[in-house]
Design goal:
The chain is an alpha+beta fold and 196 residues long. It is built from four helices and twelve strands; from the N terminus they run βαββαββββββαβββα. The strands form two sheets. The protein has a six-stranded mixed beta sheet with strand order 1-3-2-6-5-8, with no helix packed on it. Strands 4-7-9-10-11-12 form a six-stranded mixed beta sheet, with helices on both faces. 34% of the residues are buried.
């Protein structure tokens, strides 16, 4: 362990706007500086790195969606896969699913169009943005299901419209109308911490 003789104050993980007026072409060609950025209305948003538990949950869901995609002929990917839905709108959802027959929106750069399922695993640093701006944006652009996975409450809420949503606790089957992947392995997390 280091002792530098002084306390180092780390900034709170926040989303920071760092540029204006960019397009998804600019976004897809950003130099790799080790950070992850999303593009909202031409503005770059710097994303905080996810926690280990966030990544474990993300990978479990991605693994189950990937198996379903391989079985049916769809496609599933995991962040940081870029999803460009409009000229000035590009997100990095934690997991994304494209239904069979919609391969036309897949490109070498990522997904250029509206996917069928987007999964966001909530983190303290991004929860407000995910539940607010991103959820509304996904639904307005035509994403058929937006899954908000809440590790603290141990729930998966599937949004199909601003007014239609279904919730399941970790360990219960995810209430999707598009895929059948059971609980995607999330039951193991329900045993680790009681719900508040």
């Amino acid at each position: 362990m280091y002792d530098t003789g002084m306390a180092i104050r780390r900034p709170a993980p926040i989303m920071t706007r760092v540029d204006h007026g960019l397009t998804v072409d600019d976004w897809f060609t950003l130099p790799d500086d080790g950070n992850q950025y999303e593009l909202f209305e031409g503005v770059l948003c710097l994303m905080a790195p996810p926690s280990r538990r966030h990544q474990d949950i993300t990978l479990d869901i991605a693994t189950h969606l990937r198996a379903e995609a391989r079985r049916t002929g769809g496609y599933a990917g995991v962040a940081p896969l870029g999803v460009a839905m409009e000229e000035r709108l590009g997100f990095l959802p934690d997991v994304v699913y494209v239904a069979p027959g919609r391969e036309g929106i897949l490109s070498d750069r990522g997904i250029e169009g509206v996917p069928d399922i987007v999964v966001e695993v909530l983190s303290r640093s991004t929860e407000a943005f995910d539940r607010g701006t991103k959820l509304r944006t996904y639904l307005r652009r035509g994403v058929r299901e937006v899954w908000l996975v809440d590790p603290r409450r141990q729930t998966v809420t599937v949004h199909r419209s601003p007014r239609e949503r279904t919730e399941a606790a970790f360990g219960q089957p995810i209430p999707s109308l598009l895929v059948n992947i059971g609980d995607a392995g999330l039951g193991q997390y329900a045993a680790n911490e009681p719900r508040p």
